[in-house]
Amino acid sequence: MFGDLFEEDYSSVSNNHCGKGKKLKSKALEPPAPREFTNLSGIRNQGGTCYLNSLLQTLHFTPEFREALFSLGPEELGFFEDKDKPDAKVRIIPLQLQRLFAQLLLLDQEAASTTDLTDSFGWTSNEEMRQHDVQELNRILFSALETSLVGTSGHDLINRLYHGTIVNQIVCKECKNISEKLEDFLDLTVAVKNVTGLEDALWNMYVEEEVFDYDNLYHCGTCDRLVKAAKSAKLRKLPPFLTVSLLRFNFDFVKCERYKETSCYTFPLRINLKPFCEQSELGDLDYIYDLFSVIIHKGGCYGGHYHVYIKDVDHLGNWQIQEEKSKPDVNLKDLQNEEEIDDPLMILRAILLQENNLIPVDLLGQKLLKKIGLSWNKKYRKQHGPLRKFLQLHSQIFLLSSDESTVSLLKNHSLQAEFDFQRNDQQIFKMLTSESPGLNNSTSCPHWFDINDSKVQPIREKDIEQQFQGKESAYMLFYRKSKLQRPPEARANPRYGVPCYLLNEMDAANIELQTKRAECDSANNNFEVHLHLGPQYHFFNGALHPLVSQTECVWNLTFDKRKTLGDLRQSIFQLLECWEGDMVLSVAKLVPAGLHIYQTLDGDELTLCETEIADGEDIFVWNGVEVGGVQIPTGIDCEPLLLNILHLDTSSEGEKCQQVIESPHVFPSNAEVGTVLTALAIPAGVIFKNSAECPGEDSWTAIPKEDMKRTFREQGLRNGSSVLIQDPNDDNSLLTKQGKWITSMNEIDWLQVKNLCQLESEEKQVKISATINTVVLDIRIKAIKELKLMKELGDNSCLRPIDRNGKLLCPVPDSYTLKEAELKMGSSLGLCLGKAPTSSQLFIFFAMGSDVQPGTEMEIIVEETISVRDCLKIMLEKSGLLGELWHLRKMDWCYEAGEPLCEEDATLKELMICSGDTLLLIEGKLPPPGFLKVPIWWYQLQAPLGHWESHQDQTNCTPSQDGLWKTPSTQGAPGNVPAEVSLLYLGDVEISEDAVLADLKSQAMTLSTSPEFGVPSPAFLRAWTVENKRPGRLLRTDRQQLKEYKLGRRTEICLEPLEKEENLSPQDVLLRTQMRIPGERAYNLAVDLVWNTTRGWTASSLRQRVADFCCLPVEKIEIAKYFPEKFEWLPISSWNQQITKRKKKKKQENLQGTPYYLKDGDIIGVKNLLVDDDDDFSTIRDDIGKEKQKQLTLGKKKSREALRVQNSDVFSHVETPAQFRGPEASLSIRVGSFR
After folding, report:
1. Could you tell me what percent of the chain has a pLDDT over 90?
2. Domain boundaries, the chain
3. What residues have CB less than 8 Å from 1229, skipping those under 6 apart?
4. Are 164-304 and 927-942+980-1056 equal in CATH topology?
5. 1064-1135+1152-1194 has which fold?
6. Would you say domain 527-637 falls under CATH 2.60.34.30?
7. Residues 6+ apart with CB under 8 A from 742
8. 692: pLDDT confidence band, cut at 50, 70 and 90?
9. DSSP label at 447?
10. Known Gene3D superfamilies for this protein (predicted)?
């Protein structure tokens, strides 16, 4: 019954620098967050359900409604398990409301979900994305509940709580006869315009009389003539709960537009309705009502957002004003004896006494921050150590649990502590336990909360006055009778009135939530480090090596990364009971030469997250100075390199043999190249390095004598590089004997670096000499020096390749060589501000919308393990976009929006997103998996009059003067017909891929109630896909599943109305035939023709079918197919038979192939040769269309030439091809998740 509640539309090049060697953990699906400090649960917004959330929270905080609903058991409502049984009568809406209220009361989650409830309404995701009016929903929901509860003890629930009666009276001035008419109401609708407030509006409605006199007399039935009379209305019966709807939306008949009334409109917190009621014997208290809920609308008349102010009648929530909560309760300057606050023992005892002697240790630290305004680490850690350690040292006072998670005072010390505390520290205790004035009187002070979807915040009662006026103002008011009293056992008791089966269900759900949170907490915060113990290593050949096996020297330790470095050190101390002396922890890494130490971890107060220790990190445990009596070099500068040294063998007599010796040697990266000769005890020699780009090839380059003092890193040598040593006086060159060749200089051995740092320098660009093995860091440092820029740029700059079109590409990591970065000699690089992404980060371009011009993209750097949802949030923040109705698509190879990134919880790495990829921000929320969100268009040859909105995200059509949206391709179409073909946007349908085509048509029929677009049944609709803003492929079979049509996620459907049902077979082809008007270059209206192709797709068969259809001899007609994209006609003749050259045999013609490519929906022009013997099929519009195409092509050519000239001026030093090309993007194949 809720399937169609509302009809209102909702208005509201790839440089792959991925990380190497990083361990990737799949991100677990996190459970919902627990409740915040208010201890109340919000409701998640499904996209446009804020109006529903506000009304549901109001009903939930109406205890009488909630408990009346809970009183209906399964014996009356049915069981959830039976809802799919055909004969079972399960009242699903009340059952879902019961479960939702139970979750709001008892389930420990920040926000509940209404998905099950809206499913019971029969809503689709499309409905949940639309905004609606909460006043309308209030009436419809109550009607649905009344219908659902018929035949149960709760059949009168709505009537009992919300039903009231108004009596309208007309009193004759002559005979005093009274004419009465009763009117029922569930809510009172009151005016806002020209009214100061609620009481003023009620006075106008129920106190003032309307007088009939002069020209406006009343016909009295008793007097049987026109007489003077007075008309009035009174409230006869008042319900326990009074709902007031404010008419804030009006229509301006001058401007012909809707507007929202934002003037000041007051309403009291307590109202006396006695002046507006009939005289009765009721007591005065029966007319007193208290305000308990205010639904607020923020925005205008065409869209906005709802939230609600609610009074917590049963005190279920923790009402504590956030501003006061964040302030410290104790001002240190106000204490008479400041030394007393400096005693942590006294402060902790006071907090534990205040918190009933038991508190989690983490919460104890938070309470301390709240009470004195300083954290434990800032106030006491330096003198007393960590908090847990302090509690352990004072075990005679504090009792820690076995897992050290909670703490309490010892029983024998608690009383003594309290006595001493009151006797000696009375002032401190008074200030620690002091609360704000509102909190001291919390039992009598009204508890008001602002519930905004998922967020719940406490507010003061006076904050309601802020909603009297403005764009954010009150829209619905809910009052309850003051005499309604709640039982004492219901106060602060969320379990009161909840049925046992729901209590058990919520208890089980809470246990499951706790288990999931513990598992998620462990999965997200535990990581593994590999401990290398210093005493089990020795320094040999430039690196550290284990004394025994690698497995015995490495300990794997799983640790909580939220703990501090000091905690890690303490844990290692406990593991290594025999450790003596200082313990230093350093980050190490296994390199080909062995284990090398890079940096020492300092700052025991820092958490492991802050120290940036990665999962699977190697930690070297030592004394910080030496290992086995040898001082250890540390840092990246002296990283050991394993080089292959080639030289001629020397005999015992000192003569050189012809045998080449290749031996590995280890050298520090910062050592001079000349140390190679010293290490091999060679007095002199020429050193060559292998600069071949491909493995297995040799391209030896001699190192000049003046470069012998340069370091290995500066020469571009890395692990595995080969170095050749040759005697300078040896005539028999080793390279000659080996058949190798020497090059002292490559044709291009430089890179161009431009200054793009927005800093002034003498040089705008410099050439940096390099080889393919040169490290990018060295090039960057040289460029900074030669450009004479500040040295500080060395820590905050990066190099970015510049492509042929002048676009800056992804930054290149400093640790890469030119070969690894795939940079060719002679390339152009830009020196830019900002650091390059690390090995675990991605550099991503992104832009908004699908029409992206090159060079307009924005850039971000994110972790490769970030989820699609979090990445989308970052992009929206950087773009300054609001709302949640966005999704991401990856730009494909042709620079267009590709398939969407559907799995919002998947990481970018799992979806194979690489650095340099471009993601597009597309408006609109994605449908759930297995569902399609299909835009529906109305397609007809003659467009009806009416006003329709354009789906501008889907097409770039332009509106005509009559409000229709016509496809641009119709310009220059023949005659009237193609020009009149219009696509009118109806809306979106969200439907399962398993549904059939008939279901899609049925849902589409509900998108518009206009009679001009009405059809008797789905069988009277013809469905087409939309291609190039025109009807494309015909969808024939109504009973075929949508997934069998392979529509895809970007498919749009247009529906064409039919005068009668049709049933096309697979052999039938639907064509649009148009008869040419004799003597004019125009055509008549199109008429559908069905051509059966059982006998083949031949021209003669088609000509015969057209002739029969037009009642003409086949020899007296000519037909041609129209190509609207080219504005051309191609005649179809039966003599177009092709003869192959090889066999000289006639080849069977087929109109499906070249050059006709005939398909459903094609336009066939028909010429009657009896009255028209002209060979021309074209129209005047065709001539205009061709001329426009010619001008458009010429304009694009001029733009490309201008851009080419501009690029040649800017990048004249780079030889670029003349052809303009779009940026490259990686090709990917999307594979579904099997997790």
Report:
1. 25
2. 42-158+450-474+481-515, 164-304, 373-404, 527-637, 645-726, 747-838, 840-924, 927-942+980-1056, 1064-1135+1152-1194
3. none
4. no
5. Ubiquitin-like (UB roll) (3.10.20)
6. no
7. 688, 700, 701, 702, 735
8. low
9. -
10. Cysteine proteinases
Q: Give CB contacts under 8 A, 24+ apart, made by 460-463.
A: 460/321, 461/269, 463/309
Distance CA 32, CA 42 (A): 12
Contact (CB, 8 A) for 398 and 447: no
Strands 584-591 and 537-540: unpaired
Q: Can you tell me which residue has the tokens 């290593």?
A: 537
- Within 173-209, strands assigned E span 178-185, 188-191
Residue 850 token pair:
């699908």
Catalytic residue chosen out of the listed positions 305, 532, 647, 951: 305
Assigned CATH topology for domain 927-942+980-1056: Ubiquitin-like (UB roll) (3.10.20)
Euclidean distance between CA atoms 108 and 36, whole angstroms = 9
The Cα–Cα gap between 1136 and 886 comes to 53
> Over 959-972, what HEC string results?
ECCCCCEECHHHCC
Give the pLDDT score at 895. Answer: 67
What span, in angstroms and rounded, lies between the C-alpha atoms of 878 and 876?
Answer: 5
Beta-carbon neighbour count of residue 1124 at 10 Å?
21
Burial 172-210 (b: 16+ CB within 10 A, else e): bbeeeeeeeeeeebbbbebbbeebebbbebbeebbeeee
657 Cβ neighbours under 8 A, 6+ residues apart = 648, 649, 650, 651
Mean per-residue pLDDT of the chain: 79
CATH architecture, domain 840-924: Roll (3.10)
pLDDT for position 737? 40
Is the domain 645-726 a CATH 2.20.130 member? no
Question: Scanning the structure block, which residue is given the tokens 């080419």?
Answer: 1204
Answer yes or no: are the C-beta atoms of 1172 and 1118 closer than 8 Å: no
Alpha-carbon torsion, ordered 803, 805, 808, 810, to 10 deg: -50
Task: Residue count of the chain, please give it.
Answer: 1235
Is pLDDT at 1222 greater than 70 in this prediction?
A: no
Q: Confirm whether 305 is a catalytic residue.
A: yes
CATH 3.40.30.10 fits 164-304, yes or no: no
157: Cβ contacts below 8 Å, ≥ 6 apart:
65, 68, 69, 145, 146, 149
Three-state DSSP state, 622: strand
What's the pLDDT band for 307 if we cut at 50, 70, 90?
very high
Distance from first CA to last CA of the chain, Å, rounded? 37
Percent of the chain with pLDDT over 70: 80
Whether CATH 3.30.470.10 fits 747-838: no
The residue that leads in pLDDT, 307 or 687, is 307
